[in-house]
Amino acid sequence: MIRKARMIVDKEYKIDEVDDKLFGSFIEHLGRAVYTGIYQPDHPMADEEGFRKDVIELVKELKVPIVRYPGGNFVSNYFWEDGVGPKESRNPRLDLAWTTIEPNLFGLNEFMSWAKKAGTEVMMAVNLGTRGVADACNLLEYCNIDANSYYSNMRKAHGYEKPYGIKYWCLGNEMDGPWQVGAKTAKEYGRLAEETAKAMKMIDPSIKLVSCGSSFKDMPTFPEWEAITLEHTYDYVDYISLHQYYGNRGNDTADYLAMSVDMEQFIETVIAASDYVKAKKRSRKKLMLSFDEWNVWYHSNDADNQIKERKPWSVAPPLLEDIYNFEDALLVGLMLITLLKHADRVKMACLAQLVNVIAPIMTDEKGGAWRQTIFYPFLHASSYGRGIALHPVIQSTKHDTSNHEDVSDVEVVAVYNPEYEEVTIFAVNRNIEHDVNFTSELRGFKNYEVLEYIVMENDDMKAVNTLSSQNVKPESKTEYSFDDGIFTTDMKKCSWNVIRLGLKK
């Protein structure tokens, strides 16, 4: 059987404009994300504030528009006041989320300075686990208010005269999870988040708020959690969050590469739950989605358990340091395509995380920084996936896996950038046995030509990158034809493909 996929790219088949914040990321006080990740004063590449310049350059390469901070599970027992003011007067605390010590040598003001140097916006999270309305309001006042008031004056006394004007705020993190310090029932969280949101918007009506959704798709309370909590928060928030991680624990590559189907179902169910509350409230507001934790996470699980048992209450141990392989990069590409296909409702997303902790960027404490395999699909999507997402009209041969039926061989989406008169097709051939003859017909794009055909492929699904060796990286290919608006190529099995087309000059 010849495997085929045929796609139509039509300028009029619009999903919606892709929000730049779809390509956000996440820094939590966890493992080596902060200490020896973005911040290492004794490193040869550190600047005058202790920030690693090699990491900043890689973050800039990824064009990350927004970074969520400071957690994650960490935020549910975080006292933000510990991380501001003179460093010599800051006290270390137990971090209950990860059984470590937080030295508080890096806090809110340092992160805001780092974000400015990295060219990214900040999405701040408030502690609704062990704290509540008052502390969230105090933090907002410290960050955003220019007045003769207690916390505004505190910021000024710390040397930061102008407010930061942080626009995006998460109302806690994964509050349905029993692993969370201060976990809540749906009704408990809904009431607390509602009152916190109301108070925060009294202080700064311009902010945008994210209500906690279920911690992941297989939570026993999903999607009832969404329906109950949004009954309380719907009128006051702008987004509801989604979190999801995948892993190939059974070493079943074919089924692993079908897991983006589950991600798509997750998104569609959250949309349905949100729209149910909208209908019930007779509201005119359409709630958007913030997929503010997503990635592959499983390689480091055993090592993490051993570290927690052997070295509890240590500072910045190497936790969650997944070393990603080629098949992980393919799944990350599939997840990015899924996000783009839902650009009408998913308006923010955060690859979790950014540095060292389940991250596209890794650092050596005494050496350099390098790009993991998953760095590249994220780079391509962030660089060429901004514009207007177009409906992927496609017919593809299909296959079954151990847990999924009728999985399309090729998963694909296109994004049109009217500013540069370019259209980019992102595609993954996730068939592990067969190449696929792929054709794409462009409609409404006269006088276009192929600018570049980028492919990432590898015979070894377990190939990884290291500081000294980039075994998995993209390359430009010329094995294609483009005649009369039709692009044709034999898309290699297990491959990430980026087809860039632009108006002839």
Tell me what the structure shows:
A hairpin with a 2-residue loop joins strand 24 (481-483) and strand 25 (486-491). The chain has 505 residues and is α/β, with parallel strands linked by helices. The protein has helices at residues 53-62, 108-118, 133-144, 150-157, 186-203, 224-233, 253-256, 260-280, 301-310, 326-341, 375-384; strands at residues 4-10, 14-17, 24-26, 66-69, 93-95, 100-102, 121-126, 168-171, 208-211, 239-246, 288-296, 346-351, 361-363, 369-371, 388-390, 393-396, 398-399, 407-408, 410-417, 422-429, 436-443, 448-457, 475-476, 481-483, 486-491, 495-503. The protein has two domains: 4-10 and 389-503, Golgi alpha-mannosidase II (Immunoglobulin-like); 19-384, TIM Barrel. The longest helix is centred in the middle third of the chain and has 21 residues, at 260-280.
Strand content: 25-35%
Can you tell me the CATH topology of the largest domain?
TIM Barrel
Count of alpha and pi helical runs = 11
Overall CATH architecture of the largest domain = Alpha-Beta Barrel
